[in-house]
């Protein structure tokens, strides 16, 4: 397997077998929630030379979501939308609706915790990859959101930067991810924070 493919496999989430634990299952008497709205292509950080294209909203989990979030990812009542440009830039939005606000808060906290430890876990799993984490703070939108940055660089020269945000409104958690080749200097942090705020406000 080519080395770059190995890192891609490391960073991509393995969707098969993911299932929501009983602690996140919605109570039988819970009122049905309105379907959360998703970002549109125009609401992503602008790309300097290529327009964003939005895929369809799909049940499940996007293949390109960081493996940092794998252990916490439920397969229950989750939907996503993927976005692409004509260059090596991509983005995903995942939304998950759980049974109570307390469970949603716990899930969001778990995602944040897993992002903070992600660089260490990547380096442990792939010694030829250097990974660096950077926190970009919280956003005062609905029940709150937090923005994370992750840079990976391999011994054979590949360099990739990801911005990931975790936000919550009521019983719904959303994860927004943006990625491309480059490092922290190439990350559109200000624009991504605006995108995250929009994503959380659109949940209901």
Structure description:
This protein is of the alpha+beta class. It has one domain: Protein Transport Mog1p, Chain A (3-Layer(aba) Sandwich), CATH 3.40.1000. Strands 1, 2, 3, 4, 5, 6, 7 and 8 form an eight-stranded antiparallel beta sheet that branches. A hairpin with a 4-residue loop joins strand 6 and strand 7.
Which terms summarize this structure?
disordered N terminus; alpha+beta; 30% strand; Protein Transport Mog1p, Chain A; 204 residues
Please tell me what the overall shape is: globular
Provide the number of structural domains.
1
CATH architectural arrangement: 3-Layer(aba) Sandwich
> What's the oligomerization state?
single chain
| Radius of gyration based on Cα positions | 16 Å
CATH fold-level assignment:
Protein Transport Mog1p, Chain A
Give the low-pLDDT segments. Answer: 1-32
Q: What's the structural blueprint in terms of helices and strands?
A:
Blueprint: H1 3-11, E1 53-54, E2 58-59, E3 78-84, E4 89-97, H2 101-116, H3 118-125, E5 129-139, E6 145-154, E7 159-169, E8 172-181, H4 189-201
Antiparallel strand pairs: 1-3, 2-3, 3-4, 4-8, 5-6, 6-7, 7-8
Quick overview of this protein structure:
With 204 residues, the protein is α+β, with helices and mostly antiparallel strands.
């Amino acid at each position: 397997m080519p080395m770059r493919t190995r890192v891609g496999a490391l960073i991509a989430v393995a969707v098969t077998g993911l299932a929501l634990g009983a602690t996140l299952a919605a109570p039988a008497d819970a009122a049905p929630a309105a379907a959360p709205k998703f970002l549109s292509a125009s609401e992503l950080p602008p790309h300097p030379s290529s327009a964003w294209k939005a895929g369809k909203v799909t049940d499940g989990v996007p293949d390109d979501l960081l493996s940092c979030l794998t252990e916490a990812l439920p397969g229950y009542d989750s939907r996503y939308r993927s976005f692409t440009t004509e260059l090596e830039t991509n983005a995903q939005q995942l939304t998950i609706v759980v049974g109570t606000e307390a469970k949603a808060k716990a899930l969001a906290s778990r995602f944040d915790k897993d992002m903070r430890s992600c660089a260490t876990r990547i380096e442990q799993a792939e010694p030829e990859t250097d990974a660096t984490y950077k926190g970009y703070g919280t956003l005062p939108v609905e029940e709150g959101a937090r923005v994370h940055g992750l840079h990976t660089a391999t011994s054979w020269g590949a360099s990739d930067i990801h911005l990931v945000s975790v936000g919550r409104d009521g019983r719904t958690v959303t994860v927004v991810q943006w990625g491309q080749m480059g490092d922290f200097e190439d990350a559109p942090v200000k624009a991504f924070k605006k995108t995250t705020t929009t994503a959380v406000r659109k949940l209901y």
